[in-house]
Specification:
Layout (H helix, E strand, L loop, with lengths): L2 E2 L2 H23 L4 E7 L3 H16 L3 E7 L5 H12 L6 E4 L9 H5 L13 H8 L8 H14 L6 E5 L6 H10 L3 E5 L6 H6 L3 E4 L17 E4 L3 E5 L2 E5 L4 H5 L4 E2 L6 H20 L2
Parallel strand pairs: 1-11, 2-3, 2-4, 5-6, 5-7, 7-8, 8-11
Antiparallel strand pairs: 9-10
Bound molecules: guanine.
């Protein structure tokens, strides 16, 4: 049976460290880091995420600024808000919750954020900086995965890592981070031939496909570390259940270590958002 990597406990430790650093900044420099979160529309999942982000921001002693805009907000209005936040010295981090309503151009909106305040790490400048090994804002979910992997293994150098999923938010930056830690990295996706064989070559297997329980035990190399990024709501036995992209029952019988859903990657994502906001505030103030 695999060791369970407890993301919830790890995230609590990260938040404690952030809170201690924030308290020091306040005392020594009179500086309070601020995070602005922009939500357009009423998507229920996004509302839950934004609520959790705001609550935890305040809990670590930072200022939270929530901007909730109606679903029919036009691009000019949104860009004007971002411009205001870019120029507000009390705001060190800006996050525009995705997905945006269809009439808004996500790339244009994200790239209008000041890259130094882009705590999601989605701005094209940060993508380029990460890809070339320079000092970047790193996307929160892959950063959280990397922290758990480093904590479990120490060095990742020379390990075979397979990332299943090629999204800009998780798959691609995850691959870059693993490459930065000297893994041999494969990105697999829906067109990959013989996905089972590819996955079975992985010492580190990261599942970020958004398909409930797609990665099964027969796809896992014995002793491998499995990181499950998926958050899928499914109906089972007449109940709504939260499951990952990994079939936990079969995979945990083969893996050496595995993250559960819930309580694995999810809590680490918000903890890393807080850490990125702190980093942005420190960089902004020399
Ligand atoms: N929607 C789902 N995940 C994310 C995320 O990490 N950041 C933002 N801004 N929106 C998301």
């Amino acid at each position: 049976m695999a060791k369970i990597i407890d993301g919830k406990a790890f995230a609590a430790r990260v938040r404690e460290q952030v809170a201690a650093h924030v308290a020091r900044l306040k005392e020594e420099n009179g500086l309070v880091p601020g995070l602005a979160v922009v939500l357009v529309g009423e998507d229920p999942a996004s509302q839950v995420y934004v609520g959790a982000k705001g609550k935890q921001t305040v809990e670590v002693g930072m200022n939270s600024y929530e901007h909730k805009l109606s679903a029919d907000t036009d691009e000019a209005t949104l860009l004007s808000l971002i411009d205001k936040l870019n120029n507000d010295p009390a705001v060190h981090g800006i996050l525009v919750q995705l997905p945006l309503p269809g009439h808004l151009d996500s790339d244009l909106v994200i790239n209008s954020i000041n890259p130094a305040k882009d705590v999601d790490g989605f701005h094209i400048s940060n993508v380029g900086l990460l890809g070339t090994g320079q000092k970047a804002m790193v996307p929160c979910t892959p950063l959280g995965c990397l922290m758990m992997l480093r904590d479990h293994h120490g060095s990742l150098s020379g390990m075979n890592a397979v990332v299943v999923g090629r999204s800009n938010i998780v798959g691609k930056p995850m691959a870059q981070l693993l490459l930065g830690d000297s893994c041999t990295v494969t990105i697999a996706h829906s067109r990959t031939k013989d996905l089972t064989a590819v996955c079975r070559g992985a010492d580190i297997l990261v599942a970020a496909v958004g398909r409930p329980e797609m990665i099964t035990g027969d796809m896992v190399k014995p002793g491998a570390t499995v990181i499950d990024v998926g958050i899928n709501r499914i109906e089972r036995d007449g109940k709504t259940k939260l499951v990952g992209d990994v079939d936990f029952a079969s995979a945990s019988a083969v893996a050496g270590a595995i993250t559960p859903v819930p309580g694995g990657v999810g809590p680490m994502t918000i903890a890393c958002l807080l850490a990125n906001t702190l980093t942005a505030a420190c960089r902004a103030n020399g």
